[in-house]
C-alpha cells in the first residue's frame, strides 16, 4: 500500500479492512496541493479496532508469550524500519514539510534508536522480583496494563508512534494507534511493517481519525490506558475525559524551554547549538529552546552570533539537501506564528532578523526564522508556545534572576544551561523546574526518562520509567520458605 496516492482500508485485527468514515485529504505544505487521501476512521471503525486489540489482549497469545518471543518480533520490526528509512523520510517531508536532511537523520532514524534502547533495557527490567521483610514476603510482578490508545501528533509522527508502541507491546499490551489527520501516510507504512514483522492479529491497529473519533477512542470502555503527545490544551481535555473513568493516562505536552547562557559560556558553541536546538523541524518541536537567557553584558555578542547563524540557514524547498527551514505544516499554523510575530512587535520587542514570509516564495506555508530581542518575561512570545521558527532573547542581571525567568512559565518540559564550569552547570540545572535539562546541548538520550513538570505533562516516556508506565504492579504474598527459595 505504501507509495499509493489513495488508501482505502484501515489496519485492524491484523487485516486491511474497509473503512466506514469520511476521507482525509493530505495537503503538501510545500506545493499546497492534495497529495493523497485516506479514510478517516468512524466511531464504528474505532470500535472495531478496540475490539480487535481487546481480543488480542484478553485471549490472544501476545501477553502470555515469553519475553524473548516479544523481543524477537520487535527485532524484526527494527530491521524493517532500518530498511525503510528513506521512504519514511520522504513521506514525512511530503506530509509535513520537515527538511529532507532532518527527516533522514532524525525522523527516520529515531524509531530504530527507540527500539534499540527498549531492547537493551528489557532483559534487566524487573518484570518479577521477590521482596522479603519481617512483615511478610511477596512476589512482585509488573503485568501489562491492557489495551493502549496511542494518540500521536504530526510533528514527529513515526518517532512518537514507535516510542509509544514499542514499550507498550514489549510489556505485553496491545495498541490502537491514532495518527494525526495531517500525517497518516507514514502510519500506513508503519502498519505494513508491523504486519510483515509477524505480530499476532490485533496487537497493533492503525486508525487515522479526526478529533471526534479520537475522543471516542480515548473514552472507550475497552481502553485501559491512553498515551498522548500534543498540546497542553488537548492534554487537559484528554486528562479530564480519562479522569471520569480513572483511566490510566500518560501525557507529553507543550513547552516553552529556556536556555540559560552563563557568562563563561562559549558563545560560538551556544549559537550553533540553537541551529537544531531552537529551529529544527521548522521550529515545530515541543522541546526546542525558544527562550535564550543571557546576561546584559554578553547580550550584544550572543545576538550577533545568533543572527549570523540564522543567516546560514537556507529557507525553501524541503526536498533540497541544504534546506534547513521548510514550510510549516498547515496554512493555519503559519497564521498562528505570524500573529505571534506581530504580537511581539506590538508589545515592544525588536526583530533582529526575519521578515515573515520569505521573498520570492509564492507557494508553501513558509515563515522565515525570526530572532527577537528586548523581550520581557510577561510578553506573549515569552509565555506561550508558538510552534514555529521564532526565538526570543531575554536578559538577566544575575543567576538568581536567570533562574527566576527560566521558571516563570506554566511549562516545564525542557531546558538548557551553557557554561564551561560543568559542576556549576549541573547545580544550576537542578534549579530549573523542567523534566529535562541539557548541559551545553548534550542530549539526555533514549534511556533517560522524558516528560514534563507543570502543564508539560503527566508521567514519563523512555527508559525503564517509560516501560513501567505500561504495567500494573501486583503483589502475591508468599510463605517465607517459598519466598527464600525464589530470592
UniProtKB/TrEMBL annotation:
Active site per the UniProt annotation: 252
Domain Aldehyde dehydrogenase, residue spans: 16-476
Annotated coiled-coil segments of the chain: none
SUPFAM superfamilies reported in the protein's UniProt record: ALDH-like
One family name in Pfam for this protein: Aldedh
Spans through the membrane: none
Keyword terms of this UniProt record: Oxidoreductase
InterPro entries: Ald_DH/histidinol_DH, Ald_DH_C, Ald_DH_CS_GLU, Ald_DH_N, Aldehyde_DH_dom
UniProt family annotation: Belongs to the aldehyde dehydrogenase family.
Protein name (database record): Aldehyde dehydrogenase
Amino acid at each position: 500500500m505504501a507509495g499509493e496516492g489513495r488508501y482505502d482500508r484501515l489496519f485492524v485485527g491484523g487485516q486491511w479492512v474497509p473503512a466506514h468514515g469520511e476521507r482525509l485529504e493530505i495537503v503538501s505544505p510545500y506545493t499546497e496541493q492534495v497529495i493523497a487521501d485516506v479514510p478517516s476512521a468512524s466511531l464504528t471503525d474505532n470500535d472495531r479496532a478496540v475490539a480487535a486489540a481487546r481480543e488480542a489482549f484478553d485471549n490472544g497469545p501476545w501477553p502470555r508469550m515469553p519475553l524473548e518471543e516479544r523481543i524477537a518480533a520487535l527485532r524484526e520490526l527494527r530491521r524493517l524500519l532500518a530498511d525503510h528509512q528513506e521512504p519514511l523520510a520522504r513521506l514525512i517531508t511530503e506530509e509535513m514539510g520537515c527538511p529532507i536532511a532532518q527527516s533522514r537523520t532524525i525522523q527516520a532514524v529515531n524509531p530504530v534508536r527507540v527500539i534499540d534502547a527498549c531492547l537493551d533495557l528489557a532483559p534487566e527490567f524487573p518484570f518479577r522480583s521477590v521482596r522479603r521483610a519481617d512483615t511478610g514476603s511477596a512476589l512482585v510482578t509488573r503485568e501489562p496494563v491492557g489495551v493502549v490508545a496511542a494518540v500521536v501528533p504530526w510533528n514527529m509522527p513515526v518517532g512518537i508512534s514507535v516510542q509509544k508502541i514499542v514499550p507498550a507491546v514489549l510489556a505485553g499490551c496491545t495498541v490502537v494507534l491514532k495518527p494525526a489527520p495531517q500525517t497518516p501516510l507514514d502510519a500506513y507504512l508503519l502498519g505494513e511493517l508491523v504486519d510483515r514483522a509477524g505480530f499476532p492479529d490485533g496487537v497493533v491497529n492503525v486508525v487515522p481519525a479526526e478529533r471526534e473519533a479520537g475522543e471516542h477512542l480515548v473514552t472507550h470502555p475497552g481502553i485501559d490506558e491512553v498515551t498522548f503527545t500534543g498540546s497542553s490544551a488537548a492534554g487537559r481535555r484528554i486528562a479530564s475525559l480519562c479522569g471520569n473513568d480513572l483511566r490510566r493516562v500518560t501525557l507529553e505536552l507543550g513547552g516553552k524551554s529556556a536556555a540559560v547562557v552563563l557568562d563563561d559560556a562559549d558563545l560560538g558553541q551556544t549559537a550553533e547549538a540553537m541551529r537544531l536546538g531552537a529551529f529544527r523541524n521548522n521550529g515545530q518541536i515541543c522541546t526546542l529552546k525558544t527562550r535564550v537567557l543571557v546576561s546584559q553584558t554578553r547580550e550584544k555578542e550572543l545576538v550577533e552570533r545568533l543572527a549570523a547563524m540564522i543567516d546560514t540557514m537556507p529557507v525553501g524547498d524541503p526536498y533540497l539537501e541544504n534546506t534547513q527551514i521548510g514550510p510549516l505544516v498547515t496554512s493555519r499554523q503559519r497564521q498562528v506564528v505570524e500573529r505571534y510575530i506581530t504580537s511581539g512587535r506590538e508589545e515592544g520587542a525588536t526583530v533582529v532578523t526575519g521578515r515573515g514570509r520569505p521573498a520570492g516564495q509564492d507557494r508553501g506555508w513558509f515563515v522565515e526564522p525570526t530572532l527577537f530581542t528586548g523581550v520581557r518575561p510577561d510578553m506573549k512570545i515569552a509565555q506561550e508556545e508558538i510552534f514555529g521558527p521564532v526565538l526570543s532573547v531575554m536578559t538577566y542581571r544575575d543567576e538568581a534572576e536567570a533562574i527566576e525567568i527560566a521558571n516563570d512559565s506554566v511549562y516545564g518540559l525542557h531546558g538548557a544551561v551553557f557554561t564551561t564550569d560543568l559542576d556549576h552547570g549541573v547545580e544550576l540545572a537542578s534549579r530549573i523546574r523542567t523534566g529535562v535539562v541539557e548541559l551545553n546541548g548534550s542530549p539526555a538520550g533514549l534511556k533517560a526518562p522524558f516528560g514534563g513538570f507543570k502543564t508539560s505533562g503527566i508521567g514519563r516516556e523512555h527508559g525503564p520509567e517509560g516501560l513501567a508506565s505500561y504495567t500494573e504492579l501486583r503483589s502475591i504474598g508468599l510463605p517465607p520458605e517459598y519466598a527464600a527459595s525464589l530470592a
